[in-house]
């Protein structure tokens, strides 16, 4: 799937799409009545007939100002501790990347919105028994606060840090950046903390058009309607909720195209207010 944001070309490269039980995503928050009340806009892309939520794990490739930028690198071909169904997926992602028209050498910049295992997996590839950078000509951008948090041994979902992040640093290909770092004249990071301490989204501005890639600021569109729903991997649920509310106020009714890093279907759409003061996310065609 491809989009144009002004002069920026955006391409989605998917690794996996699975249906998940929403109770697993939101064990303390899920409410079936709330989902039913929002089903009219959740269907057909964001909920299936059985009430399951599609979970997509994908990357976005941006072409901007002469740079080819990959935002997040999915799972990779490796064991994921305790998560068998996402382990050892093979090299389908790299095949999909090639089908989209990109080789490993084409990537100039890799941006990780945060360092959880499902956003850093293809940072590295196993060669000769060692994990080495997958994109040898790229600079990898890691948020400084994010990196310091996980490098300090914090518990959580960055449990592949040792083979997805450290080898890149050791190879001298990593840059630690602020969470508002400007990547090109058209693309910049935007601080969206809460899911992790240094989490950042990616803002695009070109030719009078705007779009934003959420990262894990939000995992499913229902959280635009219910920003206080806590995702089980949120490091700071209260901050994550406040970030979602601020994001919705900033981009709601604005025409800004929102790309969800884990959304199913076309993965993108627009935020619209409802007559009752709530919000809904309408998928883009």
Notes on the structure:
This protein has 285 residues and is an alpha/beta fold. It has one domain: Ribonuclease Z/Hydroxyacylglutathione hydrolase-like (Metallo-beta-lactamase, Chain A), CATH 3.60.15.10. Helices cover 20% and strands 30% of the residues. A 7-stranded mixed sheet has the order 1-2-3-4-5-8-9. The longest helix has 15 residues, at 237-251. The chain is globular.
Write out key terms for the chains shown:
single chain, 285 residues, alpha/beta, Metallo-beta-lactamase, Chain A, seven-stranded mixed sheet, six-stranded mixed sheet, 20% helix, globular
* Rg result: 18 Å
| Largest beta-sheet details | 7 strands, mixed
How much beta, percentage-wise? 25-35%
Structural class by secondary-structure content: alpha/beta
Helix share bin: 10-25%
* Low-pLDDT stretches: none
First CA to last CA: what distance?
11 Å
The strand line-up of the biggest sheet is 1-2-3-4-5-8-9
Question: What is the level 1 CATH name?
Answer: Alpha Beta
Assembly annotation: single chain
Assign the CATH superfamily: Ribonuclease Z/Hydroxyacylglutathione hydrolase-like
CATH topology annotation:
Metallo-beta-lactamase, Chain A
Write down the domain tally: 1
How many beta-strand segments?
A: 15
């Amino acid at each position: 799937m491809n989009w144009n944001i002004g002069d920026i070309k955006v391409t989605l490269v998917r690794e996996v799409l699975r249906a998940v039980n929403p109770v697993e995503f939101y064990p303390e928050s899920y409410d079936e009545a709330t989902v039913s009340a929002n089903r009219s806009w959740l269907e057909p892309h964001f909920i299936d007939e059985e009430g399951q939520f599609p979970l997509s794990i994908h990357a976005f490739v941006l072409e901007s100002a002469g740079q080819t930028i990959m935002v997040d690198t999915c799972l990779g071909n490796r064991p994921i501790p305790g998560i068998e169904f996402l382990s050892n997926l093979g090299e389908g992602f790299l095949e999909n990347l090639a089908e989209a028209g990109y080789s490993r050498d084409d990537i100039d910049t890799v941006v990780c919105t945060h360092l959880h295992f499902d956003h850093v997996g293809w940072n590295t590839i196993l060669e000769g028994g060692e994990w080495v950078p997958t994109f040898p000509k790229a600079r990898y951008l890691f948020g400084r606060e994010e990196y310091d948090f996980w490098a300090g041994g914090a518990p959580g979902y960055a449990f592949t840090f040792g083979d997805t992040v450290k080898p890149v640093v050791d190879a001298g290909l990593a840059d630690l950046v602020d969470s508002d770092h400007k990547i090109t004249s058209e693309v910049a990071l935007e601080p969206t903390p809460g899911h992790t301490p240094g989490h950042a989204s990616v803002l695009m501005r070109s030719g009078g058009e705007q779009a934003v890639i959420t990262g894990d600021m939000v995992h499913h569109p229902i959280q635009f309607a219910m920003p206080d729903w806590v995702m089980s991997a949120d490091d700071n649920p209260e901050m994550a909720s406040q970030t979602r509310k601020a994001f919705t106020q900033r981009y709601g009714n604005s025409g800004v195209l929102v790309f969800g890093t884990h959304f199913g279907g076309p993965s993108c759409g627009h935020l619209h207010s409802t007559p009752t003061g709530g919000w809904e996310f309408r998928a883009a065609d």
